[in-house]
Amino acid sequence: MQRMHGEALSGTIHGRLGCTKGVGMKKTALLMLMFVVLMLVFVPSALAATPQDIYDDYADNLKLDGTYTPEELKAYLNDPTIHQYGKPDITKPLDDLVRQQLKDRPTFPFTGFQILLVSAGAVALIVVGVLLRRQSRRDPSA
């Protein structure tokens, strides 16, 4: 009697959850994949330096030791809290340093090589597509 009860209970639980053999594994894999994608999307923004981090870095020894992206430096310049409550003897030279770093950053020269690479990739894909189509149209009896 106990065995029947266990089997009935097991069948009921699986029936309620809508699980059949193998489906639970697929759902778990899909859930894990979604988790990884969301992590890749949201983690970099959480790791970005805040204007307070830039201020603290400069206040530590009066120089910027970290490497900051132009967006992070612009965010520092546009942050009203740091400029309102920060020490003027720190914020004024730091503002000048950040503006200088933003001005001195070289822009990557556009040589057209990127367009050449994309065009070569497109041509290669077209050629492979044409070859596959011709191969699939061949008569197998020939």
Topology:
Blueprint: H1 2-17, H2 23-47, H3 51-61, H4 70-77, H5 80-85, H6 88-104, H7 113-137
Helix pairs in contact: 3-4, 4-6
- Give, in order, the helices and strands: HHHHHHH
- Tell me the span between the first and last alpha carbons: 67 Å
Relative strand content: under 5%
The tally of strands reads 0
Sheet with the most strands, sense and barrel status: none
Structural class per helix/strand content? mainly alpha
Portion in helices: over 70%
3D shape: elongated
Mean pLDDT: 82
List the uncertain runs: none
| Count of structural domains | 2
What is the gyration radius calculated from CA atoms?
30 Å
Number of helices: 7
Explain briefly what this protein structure is:
With 142 residues, this protein is an all-alpha fold. The chain is built from 7 helices and no strands.
What does this 3D model show about the protein?
The chain is an all-alpha fold and 142 residues long. The protein has two domains: 2-45; 48-104, no CATH class. 76% of the residues lie in helices and 0% in strands. The chain has seven helices and no strands. The protein has helices at residues 2-17, 23-47, 51-61, 70-77, 80-85, 88-104, 113-137. Helix 3 (51-61) packs across helix 4 and helix 4 (70-77) runs antiparallel to helix 6 (88-104). The longest helix has 25 residues, at 23-47. It is elongated, with a radius of gyration of 30 Å. The chain starts with a helix and ends in a 5-residue tail after the last helix. The model has no long low-confidence stretch (mean pLDDT 82).
